[in-house]
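Just curious. Protein, please.
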Amino acid sequence: MGIMEIIGIAASVSLLSGWRLYLSIAATGLAMRYDVLPVPEHLASLSALDSPWVIGIAGVAAIVELLADKVAWLDSLWDSVHTFIRPIGGALLALAIIDPADPGTQVIAFILGGGGALLAHGGKASARAVVNTSPEPVSNIAVSTTEDVMTAGLLWAVYEYPVAAAGVAALLLLMALGLLYVAQRLVKKLFRKEAPPA
């Protein structure tokens, strides 16, 4: 596996961790444990994820997140708490993917992995805060379910087709930036409507 594929996988996994950290950990661990994903030998440092304890704890946390994320405003509270957790998780996952023989590359992976997870988390949390302004619960459930399905599908794609991982990372990065931009525009629009006339 070439350096571009490895960087693509690290970037994709860290960005997906910004959306669904626990699902990313549990799905990767299960896939490794049952040999569903052909994880390259180079990624052997991720083998800690196939521990039954790690899978179990991440699975329970993923279920709690799945349920909390479907309830308007509870999802924003959950996202607020995870503003500190997801970037660290994304950084550690990126760190585990990069070759441990090169400390310089590992430092870069840790910083960029955390930054990518924070960016993806910021886009998700901002978009969800805007969706929460809708009075009906259907949009919140639809957005949350879309995030669940996309995370699982993109994780599978990244590990199954590492050559495409850099493209997936670029797509995720554009989506996160787009969500931040849309959320910023909508918040500005909301404040302009609510501002009292001078």
